[in-house]
Amino acid sequence: MATLLSEPGLETGPAETAATAAATTTTAAPRRTRKISRERVSAHDGFLTHASGRWAKVGGTLALLSLGLYLFAGVSAAHFGGSWLGYSLGTIGALLIVWLTMLGMRKRAITPGRWSLKAWTSAHVYLGLALLVVGTLHSGFNFAWNVHTLAWALMLLVIASGMFGVWAYAVLPRALSDNRFDAGGAITEKQMIEALRSLDRQLHEAAQPLAPDDAALVETSLDEDPFAGSLVARVSGSYPNCATRRAARQLREARAFRPRTAGDPLDKVDSLLARKEAMLGRMRRHLKLKAWLQLWLYVHVPMTFALLAALSAHIVSVFFYW
Amino acid sequence: MSFIVRQIALKASGEEIVRTARVEGDTLTIGRDAACEIHLPDLAVDPRHARVRSSGGNTLTIESIANQPFEVNGRSTVRRELNLAAGAELGFGGYRLTLARDDASGLPEITVRRIEAVSESAEDRDLGTAYTLKGLLPGKRVSAWGFALLVLLSCLAWPVWSYMQFDHAKTRPAQFHGDELWSPGKLSQAHQQLGRDCQACHTQAFVAVRDNACLTCHTQDAHQHIADRPGQTAAQRLTLARGAPAGMAKFQRAVADAFNRPAGRCTDCHTEHEGSGPMPATQQRFCTDCHAAMKERLKDTKLADAGDFGTSHPVLQASLVSGFDGTTPRFTRTALGPAAREEGGLKFTHAQHLSATNGVAQMVRRRVGNFKASGALGCGDCHVADPSGTRFEPVRMETACQSCHSLTFDQIGGTFRTLRHGEPAMVVADLRAFYRSTGPARPASLGGLARRVPGDAARQSDARDYARAVHFYPARADQAIAAVFSPSGACGDCHQITRGGPAASAGFAVQPVAQSSRYFTKGWFTHDRHRQTPCAECHVGVTRSNDAREVLIPGLDGAGGCRTCHVGEGGAHIARVDHPVASTCAMCHDFHAAGGAPWAARKAETRRAPLAGADRRRVPAPAPAPRVAER
């Protein structure tokens, strides 16, 4: 109802009809009734566009302010982080790093509202990007083989992995759900493995009449762990030694020179292997996408902790050798 | 003979279902084929895999049909005699067959049990983690703590340990120490030898570098900026001159105090770890913060306010000889300008001497090889730079003037006798002695060999004249002395002569002469750095001045002035400058006021001669140059 009332022209009372019109004999063309369209309004507003990019503006302002001060405050670049601007940027950067790290704690408590987790994530992303500018300007572009540059490099690594994460979260979920849809609708992860199990049972059943050599080939397919494969295989989605594919190929090669007979059990095995291969392919694409969605965190989180350690060493060292 | 075969299947609930069958006959086949007595639906099992034969009694023989191996008690084999009493465990693919004797009937009993799932995918797995990267990568928690610990140990614990190890040691061995990981940048050229020893300066943990660390080595060249005064220490005066910080400066001061970084330390200006080149010159603001408007805060200062060199430097003041107290010259700092005069006591005509057309030039042309140039006198013929090239040696009569202005008065054989320069009494004595010991030339007519006019009258006249001449000859010394000291005489040519001198110098007195060896005592000027510029470009008056009292030293502005080239630190200038040289205070002035070359100029010296090792030119802090008064 609220949306109706906010429609222009419909704010005041009920709409006019022929019965309620004051002048029914008007020569004026009848007013076209306003078509009320049902627009699908999605309540979803991603963390990147949260609150019309409020945090993008805050982060951008922070970065621009830092850059402006760096360029125009007239602090000698030779002073590293030791000028008033350097200390200010350093303090802001260190507080930002600590606060950004706290997303890890914050995300375990989902709350609505202004300080919702989404708002927090949005701020995490944009302030993290601003940190790139703040932290780099704090360095004054003086790099060497020391703890200070180590902290900067770790910060860069964390931010870069985070940027990759943002890209992954923005792009990959669609690919993930596209992959899960087929003619029969979407399938879940549980259904994926159930489908494989069912195919394996059918294969096992269908392969019973086979000769030992052929049966051994089918057996290799059955013995293959669908979740096996190194990290490289997961991330690249490439499984060059897939037993199912090899079994299917070798069976077809073997059959090529055999006479075709009606009711050959190999027919069924072959079609089952083809279906299993397709199912495996889909599952592996799923695994690959999920790996990409997760992999960056394996850099982001450990490097964040390394960064916190390097940051502590950096700060202590500055005061230690004051 | 028969066998009892028990097939055990599992319900979904895990409950076992046992189906017992009795197989008649002496043999029994095991295989995937449904026709086999023991049917094992497993693809790893041959359709007809093995045959079991009772050999009577307690023994069974099991052998492979197609030579395909199977397992007996965990060992792979194709044929085995089995003792029924001992029992056995057979393995075919995913099935396990247990052989025993049935207690009731005494027949061989084979229990068949599937122990492996049909396929790998059918294995139970935790779907919560199966689709994640768990197991493929070290856990995030583990690697997070691992990396953090690694960084803390290497970048925090190790440096702190290396500090504690040498906390009270005098020196550290020249090897890599953990705390070098903390070094934010290379030390400057001068401090390079300290490179490995952070604790040379950072003597105490969490205490900002104090002056005593610097003064350990800099025992000679760290001077007070100003001296103490009665009733006011230098520190008080400096604080007064600086004024109370306000605004941003006040805030910065408060923060620095809160973090135990007191003001006024050496390191306030002399910053380090900024690269391996020479230490950067102190920025102008370190001076102008106080000096730009010091008169307001320090009412009794004699110094004029000085800001940027290009725009707000006070008029240059040179230390000029203003007169003499007896024979001691009196120096007065005088603002340079057209009216400035120096009473050095000499007469000299720069323009006349440097002319390319007059008699002086003619003399130079005649005496080829005696002068640096062959057309006219040059500045360098009289003014010789001192060994450092900074200033000039005093012009000396003996080396500069005497080659033309000869003091020769007599010749004995090939030896010329000269009057003694600088000793008027000796000049008088020498001249008197000359006339006393010599006589007038004897007239030829008095000689015996001369042809004579007949009669004695002429000869007697000559003899009388000669006798008179001989008698009065010593008296001619007075004339000669008067001539020498007259304004156009040998002495009077260059010196101011007055009467009222002692009798020894025949009543003449030569005014004392002084040449200033350093005009700018509060600043630093070196001719060495200006070599590429001809003298007259700065000393512009030199070709016009015929009065030695005129001061030909260039001032700040005007033709030949410093600002012809030098502009402020940021390039600020008043008049147009063609080839500007940005000049900070440190170019000419030294905070530590040691009297020698300022630190920045010394640094320029070392930069000009960056020789390695033994060839390196040592640049010690020069001793304060004595103010030489030449007479």
Can you describe this structure?
The complex is a heterodimer of chains A (about 325) and B (about 625). Chain A is mainly α and about 325 residues long. Chain A has eleven helices and two strands; from the N terminus they run ααααααββααααα. Chain A folds into two domains: about 140 residues; about 110 residues, no CATH class. Helices cover about 65% and strands about 0% of the residues of chain A. In chain A, β1 and β2 form a beta hairpin. In chain A, α2 packs parallel to α5. Helices cover about 25% and strands about 15% of the residues of chain B. Chain B contains 16 helices and 20 strands. Chain B is rod-shaped, with a radius of gyration of 56 Å.
Keywords:
heterodimer; A: 2 domains; two-stranded antiparallel ribbon; 1% strand; B: 631 residues; alpha+beta; Tumour Suppressor Smad4; seven-stranded mixed sheet; 16 helices; 20 strands; 23% helix; disordered C terminus
Order of helices and strands of chain A: HHHHHHEEHHHHH
Indicate how many domains the architecture of chain A comprises: 2
The strand count of chain B comes to 20
Number of strands of chain A: 2
Radius of gyration of chain B: 56 Å
What's the topology here?
The complex is a heterodimer of chains A (322) and B (631).
Chain A: H1 2-5, H2 54-72, H3 84-101, H4 103-106, H5 117-139, H6 147-180, E1 181-182, E2 185-186, H7 189-206, H8 212-222, H9 231-236, H10 243-255, H11 265-320
Antiparallel strand pairs in A: 1-2
Chain B: E1 2-10, E2 16-24, E3 27-31, E4 38-39, E5 50-54, E6 59-64, E7 70-72, E8 75-77, E9 79-83, E10 88-92, E11 95-101, E12 108-114, H1 127-130, H2 140-165, H3 211-215, H4 234-242, H5 248-258, H6 266-269, H7 285-291, H8 294-297, E13 317-325, E14 328-335, H9 350-354, H10 359-366, H11 397-401, E15 408-412, E16 415-418, H12 424-437, H13 457-472, H14 476-485, E17 497-499, E18 508-510, H15 535-538, E19 566-567, E20 581-582, H16 599-608
Parallel strand pairs in B: 1-12, 3-4, 19-20
Antiparallel strand pairs in B: 1-2, 3-5, 5-6, 6-9, 7-8, 7-10, 10-11, 11-12, 13-14, 15-16, 17-18
Helix pairs in contact in B: 12-14
